[in-house]
Design a protein that fits this description.
There is one protein chain. This protein is of the alpha+beta class. A 5-stranded mixed β-sheet has the order 5-2-3-6-7. A hairpin with a 5-residue loop joins strand 2 and strand 3. Helix 1 crosses helix 2 and helix 4 runs antiparallel to helix 5. The longest helix is centred in the N-terminal third of the chain and has 17 residues. It is elongated, with a radius of gyration of 19 Å. The protein starts with 10 loop residues before the first helix and ends with a helix.
Length: 195
């Protein structure tokens, strides 16, 4: 399945989601027919389809669209990639930064492909821990590098606006493979570069 931006929405799916959103509004005590809410079900349906567009994308295929032979064997780091995802437990956003590095073993990819892989897996209902590992595993499988490192730092609105209500809590997750696991020097270089 080729990478593509979701501009067209599945009309049948949109209609079905709209019906459920209308019912949710009613169950919350709202009048879904009042002026301010008339288009809300359609907007929510389209928003949810956009926020979960990653289900229609394949991270490995994204990378494979731009693989190049290159003898470079030093770290390639793309840091501060904006990350927007949805917590699968509350369907509320979590937002932050993702840092991805790999050490090529004869193959490199276009730098934008790394950011697209992050977006592909982020645009699904997620937990941050799984998201971190999915990004690492995708790059590992597509490029077969000497190692991959991924760190995500994110704020979870499910912790900020409900429940514990801790505004400043940041969750950090990491996933390493290859030389990032076996060499403390390489891992520390990566960690110092993302500070």
């Amino acid at each position: 399945m080729a990478y593509q931006k979701v501009d067209n929405y599945d009309i049948a799916v949109t209609g079905e989601i709209e019906g459920h959103v209308r019912e949710i509004l009613r169950l919350l005590g709202e009048d879904p027919d009042r002026q301010g809410l008339l288009k809300t079900p359609e907007r929510v349906a389209k928003s949810l389809q956009y926020l979960t567009k990653g289900y229609q994308e394949d991270g490995i295929e994204i990378i494979q669209q731009a693989i190049f032979d290159e003898k470079y064997r030093q770290m390639v780091l793309v840091k501060d990639i904006d990350l927007y995802s949805m917590c699968e437990h509350h369907m509320l956003p979590f937002l932050g930064k993702c840092h991805v590095a790999y050490i090529p073993d004869g193959k490199i990819t276009g730098l934008s492909k790394i950011a697209r892989v992050v977006e592909t897996f982020a645009r699904r209902l997620q937990v941050q821990e799984r998201l971190t590992v999915q990004i690492r595993d995708c790059i590992e499988e597509a490029l077969k590098p000497l190692g991959v490192a991924v760190v995500i730092e994110a704020r979870h609105t499910c912790m900020q606006i409900r429940g514990i209500e801790k505004d400043n809590a940041i969750t950090t997750t990491s996933a390493f493979s290859g030389v990032f696991l076996s060499s403390a020097r390489t891992r520390n270089e990566f960690l110092n570069l993302i500070k």
